[in-house]
Amino acid sequence: MTKKKLESLDGKEIRIEWLEDVELEVVESVDKKDNIKSSMETFLKGTTIDVDVYGIDEKPQTVDVQFGDGSVVTRLPTKVFKVKEIL
To answer: Which residues lie across from 62 on neighbouring strands?
Structure first.
């Protein structure tokens, strides 16, 4: 993904398609004492999901995303998905 394309995603809601099966740690909540509640979730190749991008990192190319239920994944490698649509 080009630097310009990556930067254009920050702060956007996008629909992504998984390019491979991925297992990710999804953070569901963080309490006032910084205790993290998370779970491992598997996303299957070819499926799509809508996410909000709230952070990007150029090297390595990763994004921080939030799902509709408020849970988040940080440092999601851009090589495991393609942007289907900017919503």
So the answer is: 57, 77
pLDDT tens-digit series, residues 32-82 = 888 888 999 999 999 999 999 999 998 889 999 999 999 999 999 999 999
- Domain extent listing, the chain: 3-86
Full-model pTM: 0.85
Q: Tokens at residue 54, please?
A: 């709230």
Kindly state the DSSP code that residue 7 receives in the 8-state scheme.
H
Q: Strands of 1-87 (E only): list them.
A: 13-18, 22-30, 36-43, 48-57, 62-66, 72-77, 81-86
Place of tokens 């851009």: 78
CA distance 38 to 67: 13
Residues 40, 26 contacting (CB under 8 angstroms): yes
Residue 73 and residue 65 in contact, taking contact as beta carbons nearer than 8 Å = yes
